Structure formats: C-alpha cells, structure tokens
Amino acid sequence: MNQDNFNINRLFNFIQRQVSLNLPPMLIAAGGIFGLLLVVSLFVAYFDPRDIREINSFYLTVFFIGGFIFTSRIFSELNSPQKSYFYLTLPVSTLEKVIGSWVLSSPVYVVVFSVGIFIIYLITGLVAGGNHASIPDMFDKHYFQSMGVYMVTQTVFFLGAAYFRNYNFLKTLLALFVLQVIIGSYSGLLGWMLFGSKLQSEDFSGGFQYFVEYTIPQIAHVLFWYLLAPFLLVVSYFSLKERQV
C-alpha cells in the first residue's frame, strides 16, 4: 500500500479497530481515574462544600497527566515485538495511522474526559446541595483554554510516542528538560554577549524595548497556538514512516 494514501473509510475502520482492541485497558484506566476524582470530589463536597469551587485545578492536573501518559502509549503496539508485525501489515497508510491515533489521543480524549467530569460534577452537586458551583462555572473560559493548551502540548508527547521505542513518556520528559536547558543556556549566553552587564530596561532603546515587550510575545503566541502542533504532527508522521520502513 502506498503510505501516502488517505481514505476516510479506512481511517474510521482503523479508529474502530484501535478502540475495540484497547477497550478493556482503557475502561480499567478510565474507571480508576474517574473513580478517584469522584471519591475526592465527594469528600470535599461532604466535609467542606465551599472548596468544591476550587476543585477544577485538581481535575485539570489529572487531565493533563493522564492525557500525556495515554498519548505516550498510543503507538505501544508498534513497540511490542509480538504485536508489531500485525500493526505494520494493517491495510492502513501511515497518514491514516497518524490521524487516527491523534484523533483518539486528543479530541476524543478531551470529549470523554469532559463528559466524565460533567457526570462527577452533577453527582457532587447533589452531595454539596446548593453550595456548589454551577455547570457554567465549571466549563468556563479557563477550562476551554486549558483544553486548547492540552491539544497543543499533547503533540510533543505524540512525537515522543512515534519516535522513541520504549519508555516514551519518561524519554519525552527527559528530552524536554534537555531542550529547556539548551535553550536557556543559549539565550543567557547570547544576552550576556550582546549586552554584558547592561541588562537594565533603561539601557534599551525604545524600539528594542517595544520589540522585547510586545513583538516577541506576539510571535510566541502565533508560534504556540497556530504552528507548533501542525509542525510536530508532520514530524511525527515522518518519524512513524521511517520506523515502518
């Protein structure tokens, strides 16, 4: 099969196959996570209902960590010597595998988690009585912005899942740490070489200060929200394609 082909029916069949094959472990994981969130929420609602308004941060912490781990294992079948042969011989192109795996680990994961905490929130509200935040308070602008941040940062772990052959989650974290150290060291050294000890804002010209305070944040905003995720997905495609050769 030409690995660049794309067929919507094959894509749906691949997604259906992945869900059916991994349904038992996914149900166990979902049961454990939502069970933990429900127990914690009920304890908070019973002993101090006023704190239930602050539990969103706990939900989002679990959401991010769970999503990154789930994404890191999205190509685990390819890393298994017993299962990789069947995965490689699937009548599905590399593009369809990348799109199908991303759909499961990003938009589908977001929807499933949101539905889960919506149900937990309803149950918790019954225990908390009238002292709980409303559903609009729960699914506010901050919540949907966090979902967007996840869908961008998740592609980093998606690339780690496609590139590394084992310990994908830990190796991705290590790669992020090393990359952060390199960028931080390079930026610090470059700033020291250009300005030396004159790192006071009054030493900068108005044009340069405007560039640092306004232009760079705008560039970073565009890079993060519009370019980072597509770029990492394209790199993931070529990484997966290279591993299948």
TrEMBL record:
TM segments? Answer: 21-46, 58-78, 99-123, 143-164, 173-195, 215-240
Keywords (A to Z) from UniProt = Membrane, Transmembrane, Transmembrane helix
| Signal peptide positions on this chain | none
Per its record, how is this protein called by name?
Answer: ABC transporter permease
Species annotation: Rhodocytophaga rosea
Q: What is the lineage of its organism?
A: Bacteria, Pseudomonadati, Bacteroidota, Cytophagia, Cytophagales
